[in-house]
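G.,

No rush on this.
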Amino acid sequence: MEAFVNYILQFGNLNKQQTDFILSKAKTLELHKEDYFSEAGKIPRYVGFLLDGVVRFCYYNNKGEEITHSFIDENNFVSDQQRFESQVVASEYIQAVTNCKFLVFSKKAWDEIGNTVVGWKDIEHLILKNCLLKTIERRSPLVSEDATTRYLSFIEHFPGLLSRVPLSHIASYLGITQQSLSRIRKNIR
């Protein structure tokens, strides 16, 4: 819980009464590896703060291939925020890559926080902006770089994930085949 409170306090000032209220609206959720936090075709149920583990955002392209477009690890928010807020069906999956533990907020709880805690909407906006900037920062170099450089960037941006994430997911994230990733890894050693 302390990690969550420290995270949100980076984006605004809240007193103990406010943080206690926010925490009172949270539940703990544990997922096993490969379980879904959110699924395409269903309305997202939660906004989560990842206390332990790694998740990935993925979808299926028009050829039926699974594409991983981002990873999130500990002490970060996890949500399909736009669809959660508007309560419409998701078009992508959020899947546990490892066993995961979250603090989660239902739509009702999230709205109660927004309607009760003075300044929460501003904090929420800054958190969302931060998450979006991180995603763009991590994805942008992948568009213009060759596969080896993309892999080296992945190692730089996600040093702790290499040993925790299946190579198939990393290859998908990098936009290459698993065989190509194996060759790149072999040539780097």
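When you get to it, here's the other one too:
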Amino acid sequence: MKYDVVGLGTVVVDHLVLLAQHPPQDAKTNIISDAYQVGGPVPTAQVVLSRLGKQCAFLGSWGDDQYGPLIAQDLATEQLNLDASRLLPGTRSGYAQVWIDEQASTRTIACYRPEHWLQPEDLDRQIIQQARFLHLDGWPQETCLQAAQIAREAGVTVCLDAGSLKPGMETLIPYLNVMNCPRRFLSEYLQTDDVLAGGRALLDQGPELVTVTDGVRGAWLFTEEGCLHCAALPVLSLDTTGAGDVFSGALLYGLLEDWPRERVLKFACVTAALKCERLGNRDALPSLAEIEAALQTKELNLSQLD
């Protein structure tokens, strides 16, 4: 295979604004600092993988506005192959305002989701067939479904970082091998807040491995063998933006390495936790040495659930 992971999904420019605390409605506050970064569930996960030594190609699109060159330059700098991506003339790139509350360690996001995407007929079938894994975020609906079908026919492992509920999930999930989602997705999609019941219900719909993340409550990993829970690593959290994306990237790294599921879950949890100690999703990414050191020195509570 030519690529470890081919990714298809949303790419946005995040404007990170650090505040001492979120102001009340119709009030003003001072900005501590601000910065621009390229984000999105799939490209962020792929940057994690690229920095850990994996070969990745991104299938996405951006506009010819002021943010388009920033996106293209950033992803190329991170060594993602962009041969199957496109600049779409006359369109706007994805954009998000991210207000980070330093005191509460929370963030509030207002985003513009692109209205123009790669269409199913735009997909490069060969690049998907050359991957070990295909990583999706569910957008755009028809293109993701077509990519998943191409991948499954070629024996490529199909992965999804669900994030929030999107149109067509019920059609896409049966094509998945691996699925990651936040706990709120269970309420949105399955109308349950029961993690154990929700994780098992997702397994029944097709995926062979499901992970559910829940911030300070840790993460769960489900397979036919059972369920594992890893408690959250206690860290001084500054910025949770992109933590789920980083978790997905680290999860895929562990699966590509063919590690035991206990180590896969620990690795993903630690990587996401270390990212939260710093601002953003680029400078904040821990190195492999930092992750391994934390795995060796930090106490991680891992439990097998019935």
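Residues 261-275 form the longest helix (15 residues). The mean pLDDT is 94.

Enjoy the weekend,
O.
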